[in-house]
């Protein structure tokens, strides 16, 4: 198939036309974190096929690719066409041409969601409490309920001692069991700003009478105030709801959907929306893992409501896509719908409590396909071939390479192939996860080279006689191109990185041009009572 090449100006115009489009940045994570267009979605070439199928599940969805003007987008276009995508274009000259045209380049990750958070703070002015004031409350024994809006894995990395892990969406849904009265002040924190702001506004949206505060600058603000963080905490199980509490969640969900004009759909209507030609649908299951296990919906994408808002570009790669948001009572879904609609998506709420217990939506299988990994080889046979001079290429994440390495293996990224192979090499052994290996093997086949897949771990390779180095070795920023380095150590005691990160978040709104600002909608949150 032919791939259209468009100018940066034409690409920019397409993004603001209002139709569906997947703007995929195929550079690796380090480059993306240093700067990218506002609505570009990270889809690194090293994991292109698997990521694209998750982010862009419709074969004829328009796709626009951007790289560094280095030819990777052309390679990516060929591979996406092999997957079954039929409408692919790329930005001529890549990001350098985009910047040269005067268009905005944004550092960091999850930038649209972060920008929405800052716009919400500006528009709705949620009550804030600074670290010094909260610390004084704690010293004085003043009654309050402190909740951490992040998922358990992030909560475990660092938290304010005594904060309870109850992610955004879950707090609103479980409020009546988590907070015993309507007078206790509620404080919501995250690592920075976005989830604290959104968490406070979700409670306002459902009419909570308690005083609600977002902790200013979250755990980073707490640490910058010289206050200690607790590390390694385990989140408590989500508190269960009794019958009356579940009914209150249903009542709040209906009231919110009616007031904010968020459409609610039945299972049958959801299936029609998912099957409609010419639209890219996503069905998200916002229930807890236990709730999903009790009433499975095969094909639905599991997500925490707060994370879906906070990191939308990790879940949805299509601007203006159709999102069907599902839970039991409808409250978590309705709250997510408010904020995702403001990001430009078409949102619907599906409350499973409204359907028969055995009635769940069916998600049709995609016609898209990913390449299969090459034939596997065991560690002993691979070691013999390596001794005979067959190159061994390590395609694992750089963090895994730092933990252990095979003697003689070379770590690289998919985009380095086939040029990184020794001159005259006609075959290679690829170490790594199946999907990453499969894409690289496809690239080698296109160049007339063959590959075998080594799925073994360090222990199996060592048992086969392969020398394995297990002493941790750090990669440099220049080497580890597969990870985001943008103020990466802000949670590890680097105060200056935290200051830079918070300044970056607060400055996002000022980077927007007029069309970008107009792309964000209004979130109907009432003023505090």
Radius of gyration, in angstroms, nearest whole number = 24 Å
Outline, from the CA principal axes? globular
Q: Work out the number of β strands.
A: 20
- The helix content is 25-40%
The CATH topology label of the largest domain is Oxidized Rhodanese, domain 1
CATH-defined superfamily of the largest domain: Rhodanese-like domain
Highest CATH level, the class of the largest domain? Alpha Beta
Percent range for β-strand residues: 5-15%
Structural notes for this entry:
By secondary structure, this protein is an alpha/beta fold. The chain has 4 domains: 4-109, Rhodanese-like domain (Oxidized Rhodanese, domain 1, 3-Layer(aba) Sandwich); 115-233, Rhodanese-like domain (Oxidized Rhodanese, domain 1, 3-Layer(aba) Sandwich); 256-354, Rhodanese-like domain (Oxidized Rhodanese, domain 1), CATH 3.40.250; 379-466, Rhodanese-like domain (Oxidized Rhodanese, domain 1), CATH 3.40.250.10. It is 39% helix and 13% strand. It has 23 helices and 20 strands. Strands 1-5-4-2-3 form a 5-stranded parallel β-sheet. Strand 7 (145-148), helix 8 (152-157) and strand 8 (164-165) form a beta-alpha-beta unit. The longest helix has 18 residues, at 243-260. It is globular, with a radius of gyration of 24 Å. The mean pLDDT is 97.
Summarize the topology.
Blueprint: E1 4-6, H1 8-15, E2 22-25, H2 29-34, E3 41-42, H3 48-55, E4 63-66, H4 72-83, E5 88-91, H5 94-100, H6 111-124, E6 128-129, H7 131-140, E7 145-148, H8 152-157, E8 164-165, H9 170-173, H10 175-178, E9 186-189, H11 194-205, E10 212-215, H12 218-224, H13 243-260, H14 267-275, E11 281-285, H15 289-294, E12 301-302, H16 305-310, E13 322-327, H17 331-342, E14 346-351, H18 379-387, E15 392-394, H19 398-403, E16 405-406, E17 410-411, E18 427-431, H20 434-446, E19 450-454, H21 458-463, E20 468-469, H22 495-511, H23 514-518
Parallel strand pairs: 1-5, 2-3, 2-4, 4-5, 6-10, 7-8, 7-9, 9-10, 11-12, 11-13, 13-14, 15-17, 15-18, 18-19
Antiparallel strand pairs: 16-20
């Amino acid at each position: 198939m032919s791939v259209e090449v468009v100018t940066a100006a034409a690409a920019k115009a397409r993004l603001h036309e209002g139709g569906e489009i997947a703007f995929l940045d195929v550079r690796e994570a380090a480059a993306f974190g240093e700067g990218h267009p506002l609505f570009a979605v990270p889809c690194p070439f090293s994991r292109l096929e698997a990521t694209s199928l998750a982010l862009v599940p419709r074969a004829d969805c328009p796709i626009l690719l951007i790289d560094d003007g280095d030819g990777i987008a052309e390679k990516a276009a060929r591979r996406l066409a092999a997957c079954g995508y039929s409408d692919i274009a790329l930005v001529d000259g890549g990001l350098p041409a985009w910047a040269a045209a005067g268009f905005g380049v944004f550092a960091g990750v999850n930038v649209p969601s972060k920008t929405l958070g800052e716009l919400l703070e500006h528009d709705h002015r949620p009550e804030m409490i600074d670290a010094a004031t909260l610390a004084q409350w704690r010293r004085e024994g003043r009654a309050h309920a402190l909740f951490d809006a992040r998922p358990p894995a992030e909560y475990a990395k660092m938290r304010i001692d005594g904060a309870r892990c109850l992610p955004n969406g879950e707090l609103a849904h479980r409020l009546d069991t988590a907070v015993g009265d309507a007078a206790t002040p509620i404080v919501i924190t995250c690592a920075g700003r976005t989830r604290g702001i959104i968490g406070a506004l979700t409670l306002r949206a459902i009419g909570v009478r308690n005083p609600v505060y977002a902790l200013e600058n979250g755990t980073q603000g707490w640490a910058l105030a010289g206050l200690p963080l607790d590390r390694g905490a385990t989140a408590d199980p989500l508190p269960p709801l009794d019958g009356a509490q579940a009914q209150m969640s249903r009542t709040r969900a209906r009231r919110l959907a009616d007031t904010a004009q968020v459409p609610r759909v039945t299972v049958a209507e959801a299936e029609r929306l998912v099957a409609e030609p010419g639209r890219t649908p996503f069905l998200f299951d916002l229930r807890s893992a236990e709730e999903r296990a009790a009433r499975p919906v095969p094909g639905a994408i599991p997500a925490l409501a707060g994370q879906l808002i906070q990191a939308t570009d990790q879940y949805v790669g299509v601007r203006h896509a159709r999102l069907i948001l599902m839970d039991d009572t409808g409250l978590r879904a309705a709250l997510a719908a408010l904020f995702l609609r403001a990001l430009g998506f078409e949102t619907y709420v599906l409350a499973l409590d409204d359907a028969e217990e055995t009635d769940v939506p069916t998600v049709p299988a995609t016609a898209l396909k990913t390449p299969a990994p090459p034939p596997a080889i065991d560690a002993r046979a691979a070691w013999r071939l390596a001794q005979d001079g067959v190159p061994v290429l390590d395609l694992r994440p750089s963090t895994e390479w730092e933990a252990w390495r095979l003697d003689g293996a070379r770590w690289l990224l998919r985009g380095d192939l086939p040029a990184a192979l020794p001159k005259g090499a006609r075959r290679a052994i690829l170490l790594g996860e199946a999907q990453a290996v499969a894409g690289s093997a496809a690239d080698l086949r296109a160049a007339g080279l063959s590959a075998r897949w080594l799925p073994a771990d360090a222990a199996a390779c060592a048992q086969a006689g392969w020398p394995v180095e297990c002493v941790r070795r750090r990669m440099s920023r220049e080497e580890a191109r597969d990870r985001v380095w943008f103020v990466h150590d802000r949670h590890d005691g680097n105060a200056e990185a935290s200051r830079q990160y918070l300044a970056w978040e607060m400055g996002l709104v000022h980077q927007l041009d007029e069309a970008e600002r107009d792309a964000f909608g209004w979130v109907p949150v009432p003023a505090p009572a």
